[in-house]
Amino acid sequence: MKKRFNKLQWGLLFTVSLSAGLQSCEKFLDLKPTNALLAENAIYDAKTAKALVNSAYSRFKNYNLGSAINLAVLPGDNVFFAGSQSQNIELDNRAFTVTNSAIVSAYSENYALINVANWAIAEIPKVQDATFLSGEQDKLVGEAYFFRAIAYFNLVRSWGGVQLQLNPTKDLTTLGAIKRSSVEDSYKQVLADLDKAEALLPADDAVTRNRVQRATVKAIRAKLYLYTKQFDLAEKEADAVIQLPKYSLVENYAQFFTLPFLSSESIFELSATTNNPGMSGTIWFPASGTPRGSYEFRPTNQIVNLLNDPKKGGARKNLLATRGADVYVNIYNTASPNLNPAFVIRIADIYLIRAEARLRKSNPNIAGAIADLNRIRGRAEADLYPTTAVHTEALLQAIWEERRLEFPFEADRWYDLVRTEQAEKLLGVSRNFWLFPIPQADVLSDPDLNGINNPGY
Q1: Pairing of strands 326-329, 297-299
Q2: Is 262 helix (H, G, I), strand (E, B) or coil?
Q3: Non-local CB neighbours of 76 within 8 Å, separated by 6+ positions
Q4: How far is Cα 156 from Cα 190, in angstroms, rounded to an integer?
Q5: Is 4 left (phi over 0), alpha (psi -120 to 50) or beta?
Q6: Contact 286/295 with Cβ under 8 angstroms?
C-alpha cells in the first residue's frame, strides 16, 4: 500500500531537503533512513544557525509571493482569475475542495516553516561558538519564534484551530498524539510565541525593514488582537508602533510599491534581488505590449471603479494601469528581473487597525477612530470622513471599506471579509465555507484528526 504523508511529515521532509540544500561544507546534515532522521548535528556553529534562520526567511517569502496571494486575494471581490488552472478557478469561485493543490500547498508550507522554526528554537541555544556577536544567538531564536507565530496565525485564520506542533520532528515514528486545538488555544500559542520573540530580539534599529524587529512583532500582535476582538489591546499595540519615528505614511502613495522599495511605510517587507527574485508582474500584465504577461489575475470592475473614484480611491488609482483597453494591477510592476517585494505589513494597516479598535472597544473613541481613518484618506487624497453627525455602524463600515481600498491586491481581503462576518452578505459564501478544508490526505492519514474535516467538507 502506498504510504501517505501528512503535513507534519512533509514538514520534516521539507526541512531535510532545505538543510541539505544549504550544505556548503563538511557535514551540515547527517542523513539517516527516512524513518530515523537525526539532525542534532545539523546546527553546530554560528554559520549553520544563521543559515537555518535565513531559510525560514526564504520559506516565508515564497509563501507570501504565492500561496498568501492565492488564498487571500482570489476568493475575495477585488480580483478574478482569467487563467485555466483548476485550483485557482476553484478559489475564484469560492468552491473550495479538499484536494485543491493551492490549499494543500499553503497548508504544508506553513507546517514546513513551523518545523524549520522548531529546529531553530530547540537547537540554536545549544550552539557554542565564539564567533556569535553579542546577542546574536538570542536574536536568531527570536526570529524563529516570530516565524512560528506568524505561520500559526496564517493557519488559524485559514483553517481554524490546528494541531500545534511545538517540537522539531526528529523521527517520523514519533509523530502523532497531537489533537487539533481550539481556535482560542491556537491563537494563544501565536501570542505566546510573539511574546517570546519580542523578549529575545534586540532593540530596533532606525533603518531595517526587511528583517524581523520588535516593531514587527508588535504590528502582528496588534493584528492578532483585532482578530481575537481584544480591541483595547489592539489599540495599545498599534499605538506603540505608530509612535515610532521610524515609520510614516509616504505622501506619494505609489512610493511604497516602486523602486527602491523599503520606504518609511514598510514595517516588514521581504526584499527581492536579481539573484533572489520576488513577485513577478507576469500574471498581472496584459498579454500584449511590453512587458508581456499572462493577464491571469485581473482587477474586478467593482474595484476598478472604486479606485478610479477620486472621492474614494484618490491617489490609489495608481494601483492600476492601462494598456490599450486592458486595465491591470500595477503594484507588482517589474517583470524580469522580478524585484517586487512581498509586503507583509505596512504602517497604513496599523492606522486602520487602531481606527477599528478605537471604535469597537468597550469605551469607544469615535473622534480618534475618525482621525485615524482620515489619516489614511488624506494621504490617499480622497474625501475625508465627516466629523459631525457620526453613526457608529456607518463609521465601522467606512473603516472596513477603507481596508479594501488601501490593500486591494495585498494578502488581506478574504480574511477581512471572514473576520468581519461579511463573506456571506457580500460574496454569498455561507459560514460553513469561511474556512478552507484541511487537505484530504491529512484527514485520511492522520489518526489524530479522527477523519473529521472542517464543517461543510
Answers
A1: unpaired
A2: coil
A3: 413, 414, 417, 427
A4: 9
A5: beta
A6: yes
CB atoms within 10 A of CB 422: 14
List CB contacts of 234: < 8 A, sequence separation 6 or more: 222, 223, 225, 226, 353, 354, 356, 357
Report how far residue 185's alpha carbon sits from residue 188's, in angstroms, rounded to the nearest whole number. Answer: 5
pLDDT reading at 13 higher than 60 = no
Q: Which three cell numbers stand for residue 143?
A: 526570529
Tell me whether residue 36 is exposed, middle or buried, using C-beta atoms within 10 angstroms of its C-beta: 0 to 12, 13 to 18, 19 or more: exposed
- Enter the DSSP assignment of 432: G
**What pLDDT is attached to residue 275?**
87
Can you give the pLDDT at residue 40?
62
C-alpha cell at 201: 530580539
User: Which residue matches cell numbers 506603540?
Assistant: 240
C-alpha cell at 269: 517587507
Beta partners for 299?
Answer: 79
3-state secondary structure 334-359: CCCCCCECEEEEEHHHHHHHHHHHHH
The Cα–Cα gap between 219 and 238 comes to 6
Helix (H) or strand (E) segment spanning residue 90: helix 86-92
pLDDT of residue 401 exceeding 60: yes
Minimum mean pLDDT range among 23-32, 49-58, 91-100, 360-369: 23-32
The pLDDT tens digits of the residues spanning 50-69 come to 999 999 999 999 999 999 99
